Amino acid sequence: MESKHSVEKYVFQIIGYFFISLFAVMCLIPFLMIVIGSFTEESQIIRKGYSLIPNKLSFDAYAFIFKNPKQIVSAYQITLIVTIVGTLVGLFLTAMTAYVLQRKDFKYRNVFAFYFFFTTLFSGGLVPWYIMIVKYLGWKDSLLALVVPALLNVFYIIIMRSFISSTIPDAISESAKIDGAGDFRIFFSMILPLTKPALATIGLFIGLNYWNDWYHATLFINKENLYPLQYFLYRILSSIAFANSSVASQGSVVMDTPKESFKLAMTVIATGPIVLLYPFVQKYFVQGITIGSVKG
């Protein structure tokens, strides 16, 4: 009887692994098509569409992007600086804010919690926000305009607050206070090490927001040496579309620029570093999204 149950267990495991592997392959195929399509000749994509097996390899899209390598390297540097600084500072502020809001001995925690939640429902509007950033703070053509506006996200604060309150007993903070530890010592030495799964998960989300951000650059950045990667690639794509439409409107032959393959190459360049980063935080990411169900 016991051997029968063990056989059934292995059968279900094999079936489960099979479907998980099949699902993983299905998720991987679109990404492979993007990578392969970026190395496919533009005419082949237009005539035959996207394929996992390119008929003719071409590096025109990457050659077009790296035609001026100094600009692309500068855009990468700006994006890396903004992403690293913004993620670290934003994660620190998010964790500290969440820790304060979940402290039962903080008298005004409900008032501040309502204030944060209120900002998710109402805002001052784009024009006052733009005037404040440009006129009063003077952050036009400054990296601060790319970092500061996205530092805090109320949704992440709520997640971190729930994580701390549900996984870290109050007795830990109380015992540390009895031993003479201050609030900052408790936060840095005890709270942060115990919140690694949540920090990794929220840090990944914050990093993705900064890495993919191009909207703030359209509003506040005019200098080319301060263009982030996403905005730089967006401008190249807009230039290609504008040049083709202008030439076509004049009745001339459309310029031979790799528009479709350029989009795919742009996706590969923009997502590559994030794809390489994910395996390092995967363990904490999985813990962070499953710990609630484990406790339940």
TrEMBL record:
It is a multi-pass membrane protein. Pfam families: BPD_transp_1. Residues 76-281 form the ABC transmembrane type-1 domain. PROSITE patterns: ABC_TM1 (PS50928). InterPro entries: MetI-like, MetI-like_sf. Keywords: Cell membrane, Membrane, Transmembrane, Transmembrane helix, Transport. The chain crosses the membrane at residues 12-36, 75-100, 112-131, 143-164, 184-211, 261-281. It is found in: Cell membrane. PANTHER family: ABC TRANSPORTER PERMEASE PROTEIN MG189-RELATED-RELATED, POLYGALACTURONAN_RHAMNOGALACTURONAN TRANSPORT SYSTEM PERMEASE PROTEIN YTCP. Belongs to the binding-protein-dependent transport system permease family. This is ABC transporter permease subunit.
